[in-house]
Amino acid sequence: MTLLKVDALDCRYGLLQAVRRVSFEVEAGETVALIGANGAGKTTLLRAIAGVHRPNGGRVELDGVDITTLPAHRRVGLGIALVPEGRRLFPSLTVEENLRVAASPRRPGRWNVRSVLDVFPMLQQRRRTPAASLSGGEQQAVAIGRALMSNPRLLLLDEVSLGLAPIVVDAVYRSLAGILSEGATVLLVEQDLTRALRVAGRVICMLEGRVVLEGAAAALDRDHVVSAYFGLRKPA
Ligand code: ATP
Predict the structure, then answer these.
(1) Does ligand 1 come within 6 angstroms of the Cβ of 161?
(2) What's the gap in Å between 158 CA and the centre of ligand 1?
(3) What is the pTM of this model?
(4) Domain spanning 2-87+152-230: which CATH class is it, in words?
(5) For residue 189, what are the CA distances in angstroms to 34, 82, 133?
(6) How many whole angstroms separate alpha carbon 157 and alpha carbon 81?
(7) Which ligand 1 atom is at minimum distance from the Cα of 85?
(8) Which of 30, 42, 78, 157 is the most exposed place for a label (fewest CB within 10 A)?
(9) Where are the alpha helices (DSSP H) in the chain?
(10) Which residue in 61, 81, 54 sits closest to 5, CA to CA?
């Protein structure tokens, strides 16, 4: 069943076209990685799906319903949650408070403070610590936990590895693996190609605002992906 459908989406910042007629679908239960070099348009695309960036053309559908013009808060109510680049926590609020502010009374489900702390053991001892005092990895865990608190049907993750030590990224991805194995539907931006190919069932590669390669992670040739990623030669 198709959960998300993006059709011929265009996004601009003034004259700069960041996303160019991008189309793809995400099935319920899939994990799809969005890859591409800096400036390829990945963040803008996620923000347009979340309703934070208004597209200039094209369409976004959730479950066959056109949500292209729906504001971000209404999309959260429908089950779209974005973990933004840079985490954007409330620095003076504790871990638990950061999680509680995101709880959606309209979307019941499996996620609450306790279940979030269960999947992110690194936060167990930190629940009363202000977000500003957390390490980068702990902050990323809170950011993902906060998104889960809205019991999303579609989780959008923007570069969870950014600025984190590899060992911390491993810990965050270990927790994510548990979430993914429960059948969550996830669209994630990941700069690390190896990790993207490992975690995702399908990969979409963007270059200069366009989708230049899309396919099942297991079926893609790594050299082919690297070429598409850097635009070295046109993928066959
Ligand atoms: P990164 O990995 O660096 O975050 P990205 O693939 O996510 O890159 P975007 O951040 O979506 O790419 O940027 C796409 C294009 O839009 C880039 O050329 C970028 O410079 C431009 N851009 C992004 N945000 C803005 C903004 N707020 N104002 C103007 N241009 C922007």
Answers:
(1) no
(2) 13
(3) 0.93
(4) alpha beta
(5) 5, 11, 26
(6) 9
(7) 4
(8) 78
(9) 42-50, 72-78, 95-100, 113-119, 136-148, 166-181, 193-199, 222-230
(10) 61
The closest residue, in CA terms, to atom 29 on ligand 1 is 13
Scan for tokens 């959008």, then name that residue: 156
Among 9, 10, 13, name the best residue to mutate to test ligand 1's pocket (greatest count of ligand atoms within 8 A of Cβ).
Answer: 13
> pLDDT tens across 111-146, in order?
889 999 988 888 999 999 999 999 998 999 999 999
Residue from 59, 102, 97, 96 nearest 81 by CA: 102
| Beta-sheet pairing, 16-27 with 154-158 | unpaired
Both tokens assigned to 224 = 């082919």
Q: Which amino acid is at 224?
A: H
| Domain definitions of the chain by residue range | 2-87+152-230
Q: From ligand 1's centre to the CA of 19, what distance in Å? A: 9
- Mutation test residue for ligand 1: of 9, 10, 19, 38, the one with most atoms within 8 Å of CB: 38
Most confidently predicted of 70-74, 102-106, 194-198, 226-230: 70-74
- Cβ partners under 8 Å of residue 102, min gap 6: 146, 147, 149, 150
